[in-house]
Amino acid sequence: MSQISPFHLMILLFYGLGASLGYGLLGLACVFYFDGEAEAKRFFVAYTLSFKTIISLGLILGTWLIVYRTQDVISETVEAAFAQEELDTHYFTNKQKFYSLKRSISFSAEFIVVAFVVFNYLCQFALSKWGQNLMIFAMCAQYALGVYVGRKLRYAGMMLHSLLNAMVSRNLFRNRELDAINVYVHVASTLTIIFGYIHVRGYFDGQFQYDSILGESAKVFLLIPVIIATPVLLIFNFYPRAVLRKLYSKSIDVEIQRLKEAMKDDSISNFEKRSYLLEFEKMSREELRYSLQLSLSDLPVGITILVIALESLLRTLTTSPWFP
Q1: Position 314 confidence tier, pLDDT thresholds 50, 70, 90
Q2: Residue 122, pLDDT above cutoff 80
Q3: Mean of the per-residue pLDDT values for the chain?
Q4: Cβ atoms 301, 196 nearer than 8 A
Q5: Engineering a disulfide at 31: which of 4, 43, 142, 316 sits with its beta carbon 3.0 to 4.6 angstroms away?
């Protein structure tokens, strides 16, 4: 079974940030060569400060690398814990969709088109032709990679949902055999949330040209990533741990039944046997309850996502010429 090394994840994130920096420097050189020094400076200011593309592109590149390199964690963890016959057919259906290259390409291609339309026709960069093309390419890459990550999270959640009907035949709770899934959930969802925040704030604060019939009202289309990502991230941040708690609860029941069978021939009294079983169950349930409290403490993450979306939407509406 794959193990997630935090140092490896950190290096992958730095690879993404480094690639974004390299793209910015390459773009600076291209604009300088074709459009001159003044336009090159404008491009680099837009890329680094005005739109914060250097950060948002680096984050989503790093997140994509992490999700791509660790995508086997969930399936390997689940299949190491359960026998094939214990898993629902829906698990294997969603696993096939999770790994489908065709679906990843088609979803990403659709959002490349969306990004191209938004940033080529509705919200245009006030830069030279080379500067515009480089920024549009960076936006298309962010949309494509963001959709790739979101699609992976969606089908990972559906794979976990299918485990609710899985038969638990041994104690998975003792060695926390499913906890690697939690690491995947935390890393992928947290980095995606940070990307979404920087992306939305950066592009809402940037200076666009609005030459379409929609005028500045087209700014609302900049919310497309966060509108799509919010339900996925909210569900994926909480639901997998609810599934794990249910599976661990079944594991406790299995262990209690095993203890009952093991103590049948013991010389201790029935009262002592019941006391031991009750104490074991109490301690195990309390640990699960504590895990639930930890999950609820993550509620501000979900609230933060909603605040980002609502704040940006309200700011757009109040500054739009279509509204008094």
Answers
A1: very low
A2: yes
A3: 80
A4: no
A5: 43
Cα–Cα distance measured from residue 134 to residue 157, given in angstroms and rounded to the nearest whole number:
35
CA dihedral 83, 84, 87, 91 (to 10 degrees): 130
Q: What Cα–Cα distance (Å) separates residue 51 from each residue in 8, 43, 61, 73, 143?
A: 29, 10, 17, 34, 15
This prediction has a pTM of 0.80
Q: Which of 241, 281, 250 is nearest to 169 (CA)?
A: 250
Alpha helices in 206-322 (DSSP H): 224-262, 270-296, 299-319
Name residues whose C-beta falls within 8 Å of residue 134's C-beta, 6 or more positions apart in sequence: 27, 30, 31, 43, 47
Rounded Cα gap, residues 290 and 296, in angstroms: 10
205-to-50, 107, 306 alpha-carbon distances in Å: 7, 28, 18
Question: In this predicted structure, what is the pLDDT of residue 305?
Answer: 53
Could you give the angle at the alpha carbon of 96 between the alpha carbons of 95 and 99, nearest 5°?
A: 85
List Cα–Cα distances, 234 to 49, 239, 240, 308, 319, in angstroms: 29, 8, 11, 13, 29
Query: Can you name the residues that pair with 125 across neighbouring β-strands?
Result: 208
